Amino acid sequence: MKKAQEKLGALLGRNPGLSKDFNNCVDFSLTPEEFEAGWCELMMKYESMTDSHFENLYKYREAWVTCYFKHQFFPFLQSTQRSEGFNAVLKRYVNPHKSILNFVKQYQKIQTHILVREGAKDYRTGHLQSEMSSSYPIEKQAYNSYTRDLYEKFRDEFQLTTRYNVRPHGEHLYELYPNQ
Fold first, then answer.
1. 160 in a structural domain
2. Residues spanned by the domain of 108
3. Whether the model pTM is above 0.70
4. Residue 16 vs residues 23, 37, 71, 93, 138: alpha-carbon distances, Å
5. Cα gap 94→102, rounded to integer Å
6. Phi-psi region of 170 (alpha: psi -120 to 50; beta: other; left: phi over 0)
7. How far apart are CA 92 and CA 83, in angstroms?
8. Of 68, 90, 105, which residue is a domain's last?
9. Does 111 have pLDDT greater than 90?
10. pLDDT tens for residues 121-175?
């Protein structure tokens, strides 16, 4: 959406209502069918929707319109936090007043350090066993798919989901009680 607003900012500014309608179509479509219908309405309502940037957006809609990927699981994904963390590392190790050669050397050191840490995680995943807390298929899949560290985070969160049971207590009322 940020890229769309960068590319289409002037076009959206020249067409009152387009920005709001565009955002509504993208943000409030719960299914791909709703999005497709909303997009068709936008195409008929605004001539500027034939702009090549809109055509490219539509072509790659499955990558940025939420209703296309809302059922997919992206655990612990925090891209902004990751890039901010790496920027902090660069600032700590690289002096902006030094030469580009110095930057490259420092960057290589940081890269080696990261690769060593990743290698240790790969070793832990391949050689160390971690105990599964249940026999649920989702936990087995997480165990086989994630690194050991990430699996242990998943397992801890997954265990919390089984701490309570729910039983009906009337037509629209439920009782939550601890699992013994």
1. yes
2. 80-127
3. no
4. 13, 21, 33, 48, 48
5. 8
6. left
7. 14
8. 68
9. no
10. 666 656 566 777 788 898 889 888 888 778 888 888 888 887 888 889 888 899 8
